[in-house]
Automatic annotation (TrEMBL):
The keyword ATP-binding applies. The keyword ATP-binding applies. Residues 735-891 form the N-acetyltransferase domain. PROSITE patterns: ATP_GRASP, GNAT. It comes from the Bacteria. Residues 495-531 form the ATP-grasp domain. This is GCN5 family N-acetyltransferase. Keywords: ATP-binding, Ligase, Nucleotide-binding. CDD domains: NAT_SF. It comes from Vogesella fluminis.
Length: 900
């Protein structure tokens, strides 16, 4: 893969500092001095209109007068002159600009200059970092283009912050703890370069082993989420968010009123497999622990102590942090009973009595580590008569080396146990001055594990679903409402949209008169429900617009008149379309639920689930997730709610049909994926019991959406169902071409195993027999926004058989991609390569990619012949004559096709 396009920014060889100065206190002086003092190995060029020499180096009045190429220009002058600077840099061939200068958003002149500069930068292909930034540091390379005047150690953590002030505080805190950095990036206003692009660079940076982010807001959520998910697959990522209570979720439905932007951000980070923390201290502590490869697989903690008081306080902290105290197995309890004094606590926390010897500590801790019900152990040592803190510490260090479960050590006291703490630090053991800090870190590790599990979820099409949604019908309902200038669909229209996506609804008939309502009720059968139908009234019960359990005609006529009267009194300006008549659903064991959709300014549609009914906002019982979701993600949502605890059988109530409920949420996910016009939605109440689930009421808010890439309204690209299609091979075999899904892992493995040695070598350039587990995950769990794998399969009596697979991975510039193609040996020569590659071309064009590139062994004559037939340009690899480079212009061919 070619060098990342941000390499001139992060690893420049020649740097010009525009505004470099000798004036004390100026930004130009601070930045240039730091570059000179940082042992930067490249060339530095000061640019100053008024001085011929700066810092002992000859200066030029313009970057265009510098002899030789310039990779990076650091701008420290007033932003009002930025357009002229960008134009000079463009003509010089500069590829990156760092704006190490404050920006005043209130000044129209600066805003206009910024907009003009951004336009010029795009014209010249220049990338801009900033403004309002502290600067950029690469301590591992001795590169410090910042105005920070304190020491920054080299290390393996990358720090990316949106706030210069917070960034300096983080650096000061890290220096006091001896923490070093591979990169420090202050994003600032993010005029051009954003988080997603910086993350893409850090993913491939060998100096970076962990990434720390401070985020205030996100501009491009799709790029941010894709990059974050890619980073989290290979490196631990820890995020601290500012502005949690700045609510970007604004709407009219219950679903919107129940959600804060901070909740949505939490859900997004969880899906990305990263860890969110609340403070700077937690940020660095979590990063250090994760970078040291401490991992847990659950949240069950065992506490071993020689003091019951500290043990109980630690248990209280565990409860407060949501950490589960492990229930020791019967076998573990038997071993402890045999080994410990009779008066030990008998349960978790495991109090082994104040005079515990080092061996007694080791025995108790070893039993807990070996217990399958335990995910981690906290050891609390209190110095008492007869105890030996250092020998105990040495035994704990040895135990940690033996176990793959994390051991958290808290030696209470100060001077008496200082030698033990030094030992823990040298041995790189997780040790804490107070047990509650250890429990907090364990909680974060458990959350990180759960989020990593969420990262692995790549929802495919609805499993086993025979009914295809009627998307055209749903869009027709929405289009009709929008044609009338309405954004709020009536209950009937909302239910029609739900029904089109196979969501069971309570049928609704609209009555324009009292007599019509009587006729419909007779057809439906009593008892019935009457509801006001008005485009101006969202919540009918607020105006007395609902009457339940109407059992005869006389009662219905009274109810009809009563609803009309109360509605006109409460909302005299409201337009009344009529009264809807619905069957009254009486279910003895039913639970009232709510499934909704809201819209976040950064992350787009969000699915909510929780308790339903008229008191939904008071109950505040809800969980949320970014779509698309699958069964695992839906189960997680349900488990997070209080109402989820009573969906199973309890007392005299049978459990609800939980699979039917899950399917409802899955269909809602499908709905928001396919209908970008849906801005908000409430299904409330959603009635669920042992017989099934039905939507009794619904409301949908819609909004026109501009044309763009498929699923452009979503932060996470869903499974691209629209790409799936059938084709016929030369021999008449019917095949299906579809994007690869996670459940294809076994099929993919069998495909590789059955390839000949020659085919495997041609594809992987090695003699592998099968894919490793990490490669299998990488090839089947896709981020469809930045990569695509198309499998050609045929149906057999034993299920699907994979005949071939073609894939591409997008380069960080989002303009080009690298591809690979594999065809089963027994299916070669049947036109598969051409058919599959044409489908891959179409998928790449849809994503806006311009160029497709691949590496082919020079001896692979069959593949090279196919490449030539497909219009690839074949050239010799510049560094390896055994390889050839094949390149195809995707956009040029698309333009030709459009003219034909």
């Amino acid at each position: 893969m070619k060098p990342h396009y941000l390499t001139p920014l992060f690893s420049p060889r020649n740097v010009a500092v525009i505004g470099a100065s000798d004036t004390p206190g100026s930004v130009g002086q601070a930045v240039f001095a730091n570059l000179l003092a940082g042992n930067f190995q490249g060339k530095l060029y000061p640019v100053n209109l008024n001085h011929r020499i700066v810092g002992g180096i000859a200066a030029t009045p313009s970057v265009r007068l510098i002899e030789g190429p310039i990779d990076l220009a650091v701008v420290t002058t007033a932003l009002r002159g930025l357009p002229a600077i960008v134009k000079d840099c463009g003509k010089k061939g500069v590829k990156a600009i760092l704006l190490a200068k404050d920006f005043s958003d209130s000044e129209d002149v600066e805003r206009a200059a910024m907009d003009e500069a951004r336009s010029l930068a795009r014209h010249y292909g220049i990338r801009i970092l900033g403004p309002n930034v502290l600067g950029l540091m690469r301590p591992v390379a001795g590169f410090n283009a910042s105005n920070y005047n304190s020491r920054v150690k080299a290390g393996n953590l990358a720090l990316v912050s949106q706030s210069s002030a917070l960034c300096t505080a983080m650096l000061d805190w890290a220096d006091s703890k001896g923490i070093g950095f591979s990169s420090v990036v202050s994003v600032g206003e993010a005029l051009d370069v954003e988080f997603g692009e910086i993350l893409d660079y850090l993913i491939a940076d060998n100096f970076t082993q962990g990434i720390l982010l401070h985020v205030h807001h996100v501009h491009d959520s799709r790029r941010f989420m894709s990059a974050l998910r890619a980073a989290a697959r290979t490196k631990p990522v820890v995020v601290v968010k500012s502005g949690r209570y700045e609510d970007d979720v604004i709407g009219v439905t219950h679903s919107s009123n129940l959600v804060e932007s901070g909740d949505v951000f939490d859900a997004a980070l969880s899906r990305a497999g990263v860890l969110r923390v609340a403070t700077i201290a937690q940020l660095f502590t979590a990063a250090k622990v994760l970078a040291a490869n401490y991992r847990v697989t659950g949240k069950r903690l065992a506490i071993v102590t020689n003091g019951i008081g500290p043990g109980v306080l630690a248990a209280d902290s565990a409860y407060m942090y949501g950490v589960e105290l492990a229930k020791l197995s019967a076998a573990s309890l038997d071993l402890l009973n045999e080994s410990l004094p009779r008066n030990w606590s008998g349960s978790n926390p495991v109090d082994i009595i104040g005079d515990a010897s080092p061996v007694r500590f080791r025995t108790a801790v070893k039993v807990c580590l070996d217990d399958p019900n335990v995910d981690g152990v906290l050891v609390i040592f209190t110095p008492q008569a007869g105890t030996d803190h250092l020998t105990t510490a040495q035994l704990m260090v040895g135990l940690q080396r033996e176990s793959n479960k994390p051991l958290f050590l808290s030696w209470l006291g100060d001077a008496k146990v200082s030698e033990s703490r030094e030992l823990f630090s040298k041995s790189k053991c997780a040790h804490f001055r107070a047990p509650e800090f250890a429990i907090e870190v364990f909680r974060n590790l458990a959350s990180y594990h759960q989020n990593q599990q969420l990262l692995l979820q790549t929802p495919g099409p609805l499993e086993g679903e025979r009914l295809v949604p009627d998307v055209l019908s749903a869009r027709a309902v929405i289009a009709a409402a929008q044609a009338e200038g309405r954004s709020i669909l009536s209950e009937r229209e909302s239910k029609a949209v739900l029904a089109a996506f196979n969501i069971p609804v309570n049928p609704t008939r609209l009555a324009a008169s009292e007599d019509e309502a009587v006729r419909y009720a007779a057809e439906i059968g009593y008892p019935v429900v009457l509801k006001i139908d008005s485009p101006d009234i969202i919540y009918k019960s607020d105006v007395g617009g609902v009457e339940l359990n109407i059992s005869n005609e006389a009662t219905l006529r009274d109810a009809y008149r009563g609803i009309i009267g109360r509605t006109l009194q409460a909302r005299p300006e409201a337009k009344i379309v009529g009264i809807s008549v619905q069957p009254m659903r009486k279910r003895r064991f039913a639970r009232e639920l709510m499934v909704g959709v809201t819209h976040d300014a950064s992350f787009g549609p969000v699915i909510t689930f929780g308790a339903g009914g008229i008191a939904v906002e008071v109950m505040q019982d809800r969980a949320l997730s970014l779509p698309p979701v699958n069964h695992y993600l839906v189960e997680r949502m349900i488990d997070k709610t209080r109402i989820g605890k009573i969906l199973g059988p309890f007392k005299n109530m049978p459990g609800i049909d939980i699979e039917a409920l899950k399917n409802i949420v899955l269909h809602v996910s499908e709905l928001v994926c396919e209908l970008p016009e849906v801005r908000e939605m409430d299904i409330n109440p959603l009635m669920a019991d042992e017989s099934g689930v039905v939507a009794l009421d619904a409301r949908i808010i819609v909004q026109p959406q501009p044309q763009g890439k498929p699923y452009g309204h979503m932060a996470i690209m869903p499974y691209p169902v629209h790409i799936v299609h059938c084709a016929m091979l030369k021999d008449g075999t019917t095949v299906m071409i579809r994007p690869v899904r996670p459940e294809d892992a076994q099929m993919q493995q069998e495909f590789v195993r059955n390839l000949s040695e020659e085919s495997r070598y041609n594809r992987y350039m090695s003699s592998i027999k099968q894919l490793s587990q990490s490669m299998l995950v990488r090839f089947t769990q896709l981020d469809y926004d930045r990569e695509m794998a198309l499998a050609m399969v045929r149906q057999t009596d034993d299920g699907e058989e994979q005949l071939a697979v073609a894939r591409y991975i997008t380069d960080p510039d989002n303009e080009s991609c690298e591809f690979a193609l594999e065809v089963a040996d027994s299916w070669q020569g049947k036109g598969i390569g051409v058919t599959l590659m044409q489908a891959l071309f179409d998928a790449a064009r849809e994503q806006g990619l311009k160029t497709m590139v691949g590496e082919v062994l020079a001896g692979n004559k069959g593949m090279l012949k196919l490449m030539a037939r497909l219009g690839f340009v074949v050239t010799t690899h510049p560094e390896d004559r055994a390889l050839t480079i094949v390149t195809k212009d995707l956009q040029g061919e698309a333009a030709v096709k459009s003219l034909q």
